[in-house]
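Review form for a predicted model. The reviewer records the input and the model, then writes brief findings.
Reviewer: anonymous (R2)
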Amino acid sequence: MADERASGQGTGGQGFSTRAIHGGQRPDPTTGAVMTPVYLTSTYVQDAPGVHKGYDYSRSINPTRQALEGNVAAIEGGTAGIAFASGLAATHGVLSLLKAGDRVLLGHDVYGGTYRLLDQVMSQQGLTFDVVDTTDLAAVDAALTKPTQLVWFETPTNPLLHVSDIAAVCAKARAAGALAVVDNTFATPYLQTPLALGADIVVHSTTKYLGGHSDVVGGMAVTADDGLAERLRFLQNAIGAVPGPLDCFLVMRGIKTLAVRLERHCDNAEAVADWLGANAHVRQVFYPGRSDHPGHTVAKGQMRRFGGMVSFDLDADLETARRLASETHLFALAESLGGVESLLDHPASMTHGSVPREDRLKHGFTDGLLRLSVGIEDLQDLLGDLEQAFDKAFA
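Model under review:
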């Protein structure tokens, strides 16, 4: 395992959990409060016109948001974090670095909202995009023969958990003069750090594992490039899709326990994937930690462990898949992921409903696909819940 690369060791000399708890934060200078205060203010008094203490208006700058941005930058091994109101707002902010006529090369298995944003919004503003399988480096080479300004990919992907070689794809993007952007939401910086592998920008939905408790919505872009950081901060302020200070506080609080939560998520997910792999009603299990996963070797080289997300394809029709999705109790039928509680998603009718069915099927994304966000409950209870749901769905 590439533990040093994956864990971010060497990006400041401190271990991951130390940076998660302390990075970007210091005791409040006024009171000594250990936790960063929630600065619920829209504006700040000025000593004279244009003379202030570094803060003028909370869309532009807020101390709570500053602390969160420094915290995520610390655990990602970046120099700047730029916080947004949601993961899609962060995606929009990054894509706003481009201009009309620019081309995006998009990974073939990404969050449906990312596809929708490019297909139905950014394309109307003059961006073009093509889809490529970023696990196929020859396909990436071929796609980059056309002028490209940005390569966007996820690894592991949503929902099929494909694994791309981050270092290789980023090197190809750089050689072609394109920015390389990695959505690291599924893995989190605890499991892999794409900036250390050559990415220019890392994007997160902080709603997911970083927040970790399904009680906040947010997004983040992280970079180690000062020029990109300056441009992203301008866009953050100009577009104005910023998170409120209480949201920032909740994400920071979640990050403090990220390492211990991810260990339990991974333990449970590995066991659930094995249980599904032995189930006669399951055609295929998608989990990078399994030796039969086509990206397993690459994942071992760039990830510390393999995450809390498991997808599986039922050997059944659409109605059976929907029935199974409706029969679980601990696995709540809900969109989103990464919270301490387990969730179940039927992507074709929920998170990826905006992706045309023919496109989904072309990439192996069937109507019978189910996606699990495996939480940190007791494992035997989770397995028992799945067993009773399968019994009812296939009765």
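Findings: The first helix runs from residue 3 to 7.
Further findings: The CA atoms of residues 88 and 301 lie 29 Å apart.
Recommendation: see findings above.
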